[in-house]
Design a protein that fits this description.
The structure is a single chain. The chain is an alpha/beta fold and 555 residues long. The protein folds into 2 domains: 295 residues, FAD/NAD(P)-binding domain (3-Layer(bba) Sandwich); 178 residues, 2-Layer Sandwich (Cholesterol Oxidase, domain 2), CATH 3.30.410. Strands 1, 2, 8, 9, 10, 11 and 23 form a 7-stranded mixed sheet that branches. Strands 5, 15, 16, 17, 18, 21 and 22 form a 7-stranded antiparallel sheet that branches. Strand 9 and strand 10 form a beta hairpin. Helix 1 runs parallel beside helix 14 and helix 4 crosses helix 14. The radius of gyration is 22 Å and the shape is globular.
Length: 555
């Protein structure tokens, strides 16, 4: 018996478990389906190149749909303590003020940027360089500048300025627009995942139990109340256990895992549940709907010399890099690979940046991205920040071990394809500038064959991939499509909350790890009754404010 049972030991689950267990009188159980975060590649930043596939992910693929040429796109989701924060590129960005203000206008009272979100972003942060109205120090999440920046990344930042972007040393400050080197979730040259940053001090607490390799099969619901969860330790489905929660079950399994668990528990659209062989317990039409992700498109260049991180693939160079890291805590091993980036506008009518770029001084780093023939290359990817398309997560079967059907609906809305193509065009423009031209031998991918609008569109359809940012499948709100209310309580089920990226009503204009941790931070206060809720919204069907265009400065 516990006070709180938290399902999912990803970024949000680790943060929430640490915060709730600060009260010595509260008993907390954290369940994670994957192993502990002991793989050494997790903690060496450059180990990211090994993380986008393999045993520490769920091995998911998207559904084969027409918009993306019937491809089953690899869809990496962390299956390890720390979740996505243990396998991602550690890029620390948080989105725009207008993102969160839009949530509040659409019915998520208390989630506006200045008062509802920023205090938690500052509370969680331990920034080595910045402390101001946008940044905090002393929090559990280490945020730092890269110790060693590749010379190609520096050239990329100059090239962006040559292309007309201002230099930006802080994408999370007063203005998001511009080009620069990303800050990263690292501390002292090592990855600072939520499992490291939040659980490091929390692990010894006697009131916190952490169990890994435990696959949760359902939330136990009695008389419309969540009272516990059923799970199989070490995958031994013949030895199912039940952990009971006296206060609440809190689901933090992510934008794929959280709706999947709700549906396995009989919560969702009855017709979808019955089709998968699940008996409906509570009808909630929004479960698994509203899936959003960033549709990432890469261009790859071959270099005329060994300037990139690719040279460290050779054994003797790898050994030298390892020694430099071991002896001096610097060099290529401290790189997150996605070192530089930019936020910019698809056209002059857009009030805030709607394109994001990541520059990688290497080629073939991520699954599905081709290496160059000479073994020395670099990559620039881009994506549309605010996609109009909405996809879904549905059950394939009633088997908890079976992968769900994931349809992100990439570029299903024609506007998404239009802006995605503009991202490729701007990527090429940046890469053609003088600062980078002296390093480049040729454009390896897509190459000269892609020039017309139709060819750009076909290229996007053939090679676009996940940006690793799925959100929205248990959306927060007060309308009929919402799954949780603004206090993250599941509509119609007592004692059940969701507190992860799945509750985002709309995707943020950035990477999603930092916003997910913010949600967990705020959830901890909501659970503990420390957040004063606005009184002007009552009931699930309360009217929401009109959606007007905001020109708030990005933050």
């Amino acid at each position: 018996m516990y006070d709180y049972v938290i399902v999912g030991g990803g970024a949000a689950g680790c943060a929430l478990a640490a915060r709730l267990s600060e009260d010595a009188n509260i008993r907390v159980l954290l369940l994670e389906a994957g192993p502990a975060d002991t793989d050494p590649y997790i903690h060496m930043p450059v180990g990211f190149f090994k993380m986008t596939s393999g045993p520490l992910t769920w091995g998911y693929h998207t559904a084969a749909v027409a918009e993306t040429q019937k491809r089953q796109i690899p869809f990496a989701q962390g299956r390890v303590l720390g979740g996505g924060g243990s396998i991602n590129a550690m890029v620390y960005t948080r989105g725009q003020a207008a993102d969160y203000d839009g949530w509040e206008r659409d019915g998520c009272a208390g989630w506006g940027f200045r008062d509802g979100v920023l205090p938690y972003l500052r509370r969680m942060e331990d920034n080595e360089r910045l402390c101001n109205e946008y940044h905090g120090v002393g929090g559990p999440l280490g945020v730092s500048d890269l110790i060693t920046v590749n010379e190609l990344t520096k050239a990329f930042v100059l090239a962006g300025q040559e292309a007309g972007m201002p230099h930006n040393s802080d994408f999370n400050g007063a203005q998001q627009a511009g080009v620069g080197v990303y800050q990263v979730t690292q501390r002292n040259g090592k990855r600072c995942s939520a499992a490291v940053g939040y659980l490091r001090d929390a692990r010894p607490r006697p009131n916190l139990t952490i169990r890994t390799d435990c696959l949760v099969s359902r939330v136990v619901i009695e008389n419309s109340r969540a009272v516990g969860v059923e799970f199989a330790p070490r995958g031994e489905r013949a030895n199912v256990e039940i952990a009971r929660a006296e206060r609440e079950v809190i689901v933090t399994a992510g934008a794929i895992g959280s709706p999947k668990l709700l549906m396995l528990s009989g919560i969702g659209r009855p017709e979808d549940l019955e089709r998968a062989g699940i008996k409906p317990v509570h009808a909630l039409s929004g479960v698994g709907q509203n899936l959003q992700d960033h549709f990432d498109i890469d261009i790859v260049y071959e270099l005329n010399g060994p300037y990139s991180l690719d040279k460290y693939a050779k054994k003797h160079m790898m050994l030298l890099a390892g020694l430099e890291y071991k002896l001096f805590n610097k060099g290529p091993v401290t790189s997150n690979i996605a070192e530089g980036g930019a936020f910019w506008y698809s056209d002059s009518s857009v009030p805030t940046p709607d394109l994001q770029f990541h520059f990688l001084p290497g080629a073939g780093v991520e699954a599905g991205v081709p290496p160059v023939p000479s073994g020395s290359g670099c990559t620039l990817n881009s994506y549309f920040l605010r996609p109009h398309s909405r996809g879904s997560v549905t059950l394939h079967s009633a088997d908890p071990a079976d992968a769900p059907v994931i349809d992100p609906a990439y570029i299903r809305d024609p506007y998404d394809l239009k802006v995605a193509v503009e991202g490729i065009r701007q990527s090429r423009e940046i890469m053609s500038q003088g600062a980078l031209r002296k390093y480049i031998k040729s454009e390896h991918f897509p190459g000269g064959k892609v020039r017309s609008q139709a060819e750009y569109e076909l290229y996007a359809k053939q090679y676009g991939r996940t940006g690793y940012h799925p959100v929205g499948t248990c959306k927060m709100g007060v309308d009929e499509a919402s799954v949780v209310d603004p206090q993250l309580r599941v509509h119609g089920i007592v004692g059940l909350r969701i507190a992860d990226s799945s509750v985002m009503p709309r995707i943020v204009s950035s990477n999603t790890n930092a916003p997910t941790l913010m949600i967990a931070e705020k959830a901890a206060d909501l659970v503990r009754g420390r957040v004063a809720q606005p009184s002007h919204v009552s009931g699930r069907l309360a009217s929401t404010a009109g959606h007007k265009k905001h020109e708030t400065a990005a933050a």
